[in-house]
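$ ./design --mode recover --in tokens.txt
reading tokens...
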């Protein structure tokens, strides 16, 4: 990570406090499944906070709660000092200018029947205060920002590679000049070389615009590349958090250590050592858990 983290003195743009989310379970009198157990985190203006954990850890649930796609049982989510749960429907709709999302799969997040021009102009025209001419000017700016050619406007998503489609999705998220983008596994569907280029694009855009990211990933090496601060989620709880260099290079919690050892490295000898160390750590943890249960 080459960018400079925002000052700790700056106030939080997004503040999640003691967030609890439950999902109902099918079956007679079955208690709800608690996906999040009082999670707290914050994102400052212009900062990237990485949220990392394995599948099922609850990290995407946090992103969906921030976006208002699922309700919270308790806790608060505030944006720029405003309680999002207390907002009216109109206020929440207006908040879409400030909070946008980039989803995981670039192959399904774009309407296959719409041209790039239609995809990028849709959020602009939906606001009702942008005409077609102004929208076209903004679209050219967006394509330049994500490093796609101007002639992309007349093409359909199927004519682009996965990395290019994700650039279109990023451009769409940037269309309304948001202050926060929730990035939900935005590079996990891409090959490694394309991942690196898209991550560098995210960093460049943040340096140019000052947008903040809540960046969700299962891959600690991805999180290390882009984040200023990191929160590690395990079974719906944050087990470790702190500055990126500390958490990703010198993890303290056994779960974070396992994520660190699972991250791929280009050296096959080092990769083998990491794999053996991870197996040993998992065996030690399993033995410890059995001893506690006994």
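writing sequence...
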């Amino acid at each position: 990570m080459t960018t400079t983290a925002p000052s700790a003195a700056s106030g939080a743009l997004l503040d999640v406090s003691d967030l609890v989310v439950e999902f109902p379970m099918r079956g007679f009198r079955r208690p709800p499944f608690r996906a999040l157990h009082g999670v707290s985190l914050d994102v400052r203006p212009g900062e990237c906070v990485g949220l990392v954990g394995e599948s099922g850890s609850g990290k995407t649930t946090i992103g969906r709660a921030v976006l208002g796609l699922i309700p919270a049982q308790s806790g608060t989510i505030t944006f720029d000092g405003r309680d999002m749960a207390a907002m009216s429907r109109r206020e929440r709709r207006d908040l879409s200018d400030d909070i946008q999302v980039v989803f995981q799969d670039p192959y399904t997040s774009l309407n296959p029947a719409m041209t790039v021009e239609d995809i990028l102009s849709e959020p602009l025209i939906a606001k009702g205060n942008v005409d077609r001419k102004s929208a076209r000017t903004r679209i050219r700016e967006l394509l330049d920002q994500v490093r796609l050619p101007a002639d992309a406007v007349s093409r359909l998503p199927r004519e682009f590679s996965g990395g290019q489609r994700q650039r279109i999705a990023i451009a769409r998220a940037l269309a309304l000049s948001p202050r926060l983008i929730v990035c939900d596994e935005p590079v996990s569907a891409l090959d490694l070389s394309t991942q690196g280029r898209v991550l560098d694009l995210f960093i460049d855009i943040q340096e140019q615009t000052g947008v903040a990211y809540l960046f969700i990933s299962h891959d600690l090496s991805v999180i290390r590349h882009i984040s200023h601060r990191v929160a590690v989620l395990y079974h719906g709880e944050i087990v470790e958090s702190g500055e990126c260099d500390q958490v990703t290079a010198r993890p303290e919690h056994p779960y974070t250590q396992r994520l660190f050892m699972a991250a791929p490295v280009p050296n096959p000898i080092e990769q083998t050592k990491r794999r053996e160390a991870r197996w040993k750590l998992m065996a030690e943890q399993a033995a410890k858990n059995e001893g506690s249960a006994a």
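exit 0
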